[in-house]
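Following the same procedure, backbone shapes were mapped to integers, as reproduced here:
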Amino acid sequence: MVETTLRQRKGKDQGKAAKKDHTNEELFSMFQEKMRSAMAEKVRSECAEDSTEKEIQAQIDENMAGLFGPKKKPLPGIKNETKAAKDALTADPYNIQKIFDCGEAYLLEEKYVEAANVMIRGWKRTGEIEKPEQRFVFLFQLCHASCACQKFKQAHAVLMDIEEPEDPDLFKDYCRLACKIYAQNDNLQKALKAFHNGLEKCASFDEALPLWLDTLSSLKKVGAYEAARSKVESMAVDDSDKQKLQVVETVRSMKAHLDEPVDESARTKVMIAVGSLALGVIVYCLYLLESSSLASLKLTK
């Protein structure tokens, strides 16, 4: 007992000494190195075999900026691909496929107002799209764009026209989006129901975490946070899972704070706080934050 107490005290003393030995700048630098190492491991595991070292490093830089950097506004103007899609639609303004293509091109540039304005023209014409999955993607993207430019009533109206997909992954995406739309329209019961429906399609705790990660802010807004969190926590099989849940929420909260306009000294303090988390759990969070089946819908770059 005495020996254990001494070890604990020694550990605390060492921790205090470490805090004295390192300046804020040094702690920040150490954290950045750990994060870059974790991100490098992730990128290398996912990149193509013929990727050059320069391409890999560029991807690491982009991912790091996207994960912990402040949210950047879309660049002015449009890319060549978007201009081509826009010109094609101008030449054939009633073509539903060209409406689809142009809206999607705007979405990829994160120009949500333009995407919503284009795709709303095809809202009531999705019956012309033969494949159910393509109809789903069109309306899903329109909902996504409407939410992004805070047209929540419009998003709700479009949601009412979406047929629930049979594909389990698409259904989870549908529930995720529906949960956020209902929450933004102050419908607690339907938001919670959509969340639970999505959760039922999750075969494990690890599958449930991305759903929770993406909806927790909306659920908190509508007053359903505690009920939803309790349901997710009930899926945890051990203390490690519960720790993941807590850390994911912490990282999400800190990332939201980093997206807000703050001075650099405040941002440094937040980054140092993130650095105090266990590296292994942070690596796990990186995978959650960077991975989503929405990529298959071309909603992410």
Remarks:
- Residues 1-21, 267-283, 292-296 have pLDDT under 50 and may be disordered.
- Residues 24-46 form the longest helix (23 residues).
